């Protein structure tokens, strides 16, 4: 299934939530909902997901890289400067004119 899917799981400590999230085979996006911004930032920094939103969700803009971890996404990043690495190959050409 690919689409909007919500999984709501209970936990006692932030470390448990991080473990649960990181044990998933998917990692395209995650949202963190918390009244404590410091806890939310700790969890957001530890969750293995390509996009993490805190207390909401945003699609970002064209300069924000988008892609997933684990088996989510397509193995790279769309949008932003990181997309250039995905779609280009660097080449050096030396020319001597005489």
From TrEMBL:
User: Which superkingdom does the taxonomy of this entry point to?
Assistant: Bacteria
Q: List, in alphabetical order, the Gene Ontology terms for molecular function in this entry.
A: oxidoreductase activity, acting on the aldehyde or oxo group of donors, NAD or NADP as acceptor
Keywords from the UniProt entry = Oxidoreductase
Ranges of residues in domain Aldehyde dehydrogenase? 1-93
User: Which InterPro entries does this chain map to?
Assistant: Ald_DH/histidinol_DH, Ald_DH_C, Ald_DH_N, Aldehyde_DH_dom
Q: What is this protein called?
A: NAD-dependent aldehyde dehydrogenase
């Amino acid at each position: 299934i690919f689409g909007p899917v919500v999984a709501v799981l209970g936990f006692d400590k932030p470390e448990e939530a991080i473990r649960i999230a990181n044990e998933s085979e998917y990692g395209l996006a995650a949202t963190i909902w918390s009244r404590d911004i410091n806890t939310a930032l700790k969890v957001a920094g530890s969750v293995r997901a390509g996009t993490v939103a805190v207390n909401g969700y945003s699609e970002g803009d064209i300069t924000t890289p988008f892609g997933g971890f684990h088996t989510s996404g397509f193995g790279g990043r769309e949008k932003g400067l990181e997309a250039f690495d995905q779609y280009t190959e660097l080449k050096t050409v030396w020319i001597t004119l005489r």
